[in-house]
Design goal:
The protein is α+β, with helices and mostly antiparallel strands. It folds into 2 domains: 191 residues, no CATH class; 210 residues, no CATH class. It contains 13 helices and 14 strands.
Length: 416
């Protein structure tokens, strides 16, 4: 134990005797570790923020709208507009076994909502009670729409957070009434704020029962189509069967509107499952790139330590020869230089980790921009950095140590 303590004391004295050299070496390895953790942490922040944005839409949600199909099968020159109907929704529920849940939506952007205090121009949406199963609708106060609201076509409304703030600034909204195109509706619930920053589109939405919307505010500009809807939201029963569920829906819509379901251009849709997977692949590639950059920087720092230790062996050749002449064994010489290299590597690596963690903690106190979350220390990356540091420390200490231990005392003492 005493010998080990003496070796550590000698290591600290040696490093202190060459302060600038030791500092520059430690800075290189600390910069490499900190860069690795920070770059991967930033990538994980982007991934986390993107995942939150998709979760605020709903879990595994697909949108399908009316579209344009060939006027005649096989024709590519003449197209006709078709509109989704309530029957399309019913057929999707009845005939698509891989669709777990589906809801019809009627949306209007031309209806102003007016309270006793102010007015708002957010989107008005007629939705069934099951809408909350498919889409993310966190209730803040009051309640969500229920079956009785829909079947009895009640004049009730649920306000998004921004719509509540605009219509009832600093005042209670539950139990109050608003006017929609001159018709009075009672506020039964409000939603929590969704998203970040100044993007208030989702928070300006106002929800009323589907049957109420269908009677009082049917879709505009749908020609002579009866029972038209704006779009359908649906979810696959299992995320992995997303493409199968989408194909089943395509077949129903194509059959109902008289075109070939193989014609992908005839469908106007948004698949959040596929989009999130594509974005995830981009982030995986970005993490690999950023991690590679950090590892290269880390490797350069390790090479710097090996170089510094070789210089230290050259500078201390006479000291090594004198110690061996006085009885120091190859093992003790080798162990001393190994400890110096490993200590320098691990200390600088720990400083780099601490600096990266501190910077991430500081960034977490700042407001996050839309689509981005604060960087986080990724455990797998930290474990990789520790493993890389251990390997670098062994190489940085072992090779110069073997070189120092291999010197003959007479040759070492004879060198100037």
């Amino acid at each position: 134990m005493r010998v080990l303590f003496d070796i550590f004391a000698q290591t600290l004295r040696t490093l202190w005797a060459h302060k600038l050299r030791s500092f520059l070496t430690m800075f290189g390895i600390a910069w490499g570790v900190g860069s690795l953790l920070l770059l991967v942490g930033l990538g994980e922040g982007f991934r986390s923020g993107n995942r939150k944005q998709f979760n605020e839409i709903g879990e595994n949600v697909l949108f399908i709208f009316g579209g344009r199909a060939p006027a005649l099968n096989g024709s590519f020159t003449s197209l006709r507009q078709y509109y989704l109907t309530y029957k399309d929704f019913q057929d999707v529920v009845a005939e698509c076994p891989d669709v777990g849940a589906a809801v019809p939506i009627i949306a209007r952007d031309d209806i102003r909502s007016v309270s006793d205090f102010y007015q708002s121009s957010g989107r008005l949406m007629g939705v069934p009670p099951d809408f909350s199963r498919v889409r993310f609708t966190p209730v803040a106060d009051g309640r969500w729409l229920d079956e009785m609201d829909d079947t009895q076509k009640r004049n009730v409304v649920v306000l998004g957070d921004e719509a509540r703030r605009v219509l009832f600034p600093g005042r209670p909204s539950i139990g109050s009434t608003i006017l929609l195109a001159g018709m009075r509706f009672q506020v039964i619930g409000t939603l929590q704020r969704i998203g970040h920053g100044d993007n208030n589109t989702m928070n300006l939405r106002i929800f009323i029962p589907y049957q109420t919307m269908r009677d009082r505010f049917p879709p505009l500009n749908v020609g002579e189509v009866d029972d038209a809807i704006s779009f359908i939201n649906y979810q696959p029963k299992v995320r992995e069967r997303n493409e199968i569920a989408k194909l089943e829906v395509h077949k129903v819509i194509a059959r109902n509107h008289g075109f070939d379901y193989h014609n992908a251009d005839a469908f106007d849709e948004w698949d959040t499952v596929r989009t999130s997977e594509q974005v995830g692949k981009i982030f995986d590639a970005m993490n690999m790139f950023l991690g590679s950059v950090g590892l290269v920087t880390l490797a350069l720092g390790a090479i710097g330590i090996i170089n510094i230790m070789l210089v230290a062996v050259a500078d201390r050749t006479r000291e090594i020869g004198l110690r061996k002449a006085l009885g120091a064994t190859n093992r003790s010489i080798m162990f001393q230089f190994f400890v110096e290299g490993a200590f320098l590597t691990l200390l600088s690596g720990g400083l780099g980790m601490g600096g990266a963690a501190g910077l991430m903690a500081a960034l977490s106190t700042l407001p996050s921009p839309p689509g981005w979350d604060t960087p986080k220390l990724v455990p797998m990356t930290a474990a990789l950095a520790i493993g890389s540091l251990a390997f670098a420390g062994i190489v940085a200490g072992l090779y110069p140590a073997r070189k120092a231990a291999g010197l003959q005392p007479v040759e070492a003492l004879r060198r100037e």
